Amino acid sequence: MTRPIDQTATLSGLTKFQFIALMAMLMSINAISIDIMLPGLQEIGASLGVADENRRQYVITAYLIGMGFAQLFFGPLSDRLGRKAPLLAGLAIYGLCALAIAFVPTFGALLALRFAQGVGAAATRVITVSVVRDVYGGRQMAEIMSLVMMVFMIVPVIAPSVGQLIMIFAEWHMIFVVIALFAMAVAAPVVLRLRETLAPANRRPFTASAILNGFRVVLTNRLALCYTLATSVLLGALFGFVNSAQQILVGIYGLGIWFPAVFAAFAGMMAVASFTNSRLVQRFGMRALSHAALIGFTLASFVLMSVSLIGPMPLALFMILYAGVMFQFGLIAANFNAMAMEPLGHVAGTASSVLGFTQTIGGGVIGAFIGQAFDETVTPLAVGCFTVAIFALAFVLIAEGGRLFKPHHPAS
Q1: Mean pLDDT computed over every residue of the chain
Q2: pTM
Q3: 383: CB partners within 8 A, 6+ apart
Q4: How far apart (Å, rounded) are the C-alpha atoms in residues 295 and 128?
Q5: Residue 305 neighbours by CB distance under 10 Å
Q6: Backbone angles phi, psi at 85, to 5 degrees
Q7: Residues 3, 287, 334, 353: what is their CA dihedral angle, to the nearest 10 degrees?
Q8: Residues of the chain with pLDDT > 90: what percent?
Q9: In b/e form, how buried is each residue of 161-175, taking b as 16+ CB within 10 angstroms?
Q10: CATH fold of 14-399, please?
């Protein structure tokens, strides 16, 4: 049963505004970890003896793999112990690894610590979604997640500029010191203000059989599984761009220090889309908005791919076409996640871990494949976007029995 919004303070100890702000800060941990270092990837590679440009992308991939697999642990653990303790443990691992990276001697050691940092960050990803599901359900959850995603998307607008500023006055090592300080800043309100949102009656035993049963519940729910897979492949397009953004915007278009500004413009489109979704989802429903956006994503990706195959694409045209793709993604993400989580409230932590694992690993692998296909043109990215759009559309059609826009149940 959907809880009224005025119970936010009772359940979390925070006002609605404070709740959204804290959830957004926790979610932004992962954006900070990736986007702030993009301006420094070239220097990181040069400092640690990495000659292959595409190999530098492993700094991002290692983090995503660690985060993806660790969600399978933190989700069930949070269903047993509650949300706060595992969340704080994850933040501690994340912050300590960031500090260690500042003193790393080799590229291999950096990748190992990035993997471990991703392990800690997994707690912020999986438990944040679980906390939101503890407090909200249905369209209210989609509205809150849209607002969280809107704030979350502001981070990619700011983070590359912060990274560029750090690179002007210091070496790339200082980027990771800043990341560690941010982790401390996020941990403070979790310790001081956030209440435990998992009711004692809803706690599940942390045993192999209980965990496997929770996984079975998730994987045998067609709606949850298919919307998770659809989100996973779409995230592949986003991660593919993140992996190759520096090579495209600096290498192809020669933006130099203006790279963060253009990167911010794309992130800003997703933030606008997330806010738009939060305003419209209560009126039109999750399916109407996200299904229309998925069709828009497919068409925009097709146009981007077609133009890229004709020949070199001017920067202005690339920005217009890719911004159109990213705007549609901003309308899709929160709704797909809310629809995947909606039938799984009784196993929210385990459900969030399975969904997060699938999305992070699936999206990370697809994104790495797109990034490694970089060939000094935008064509691999464009083809990747269109390909994942077709797969996402197929998964949604399977989830909905071949029909789009029609709600699965009245609350959707």
Answers
A1: 86
A2: 0.77
A3: 305, 308
A4: 29
A5: 20
A6: -60, -50
A7: 80
A8: 36
A9: bbbbebbeeeebbeb
A10: Growth Hormone; Chain: A; (1.20.1250)
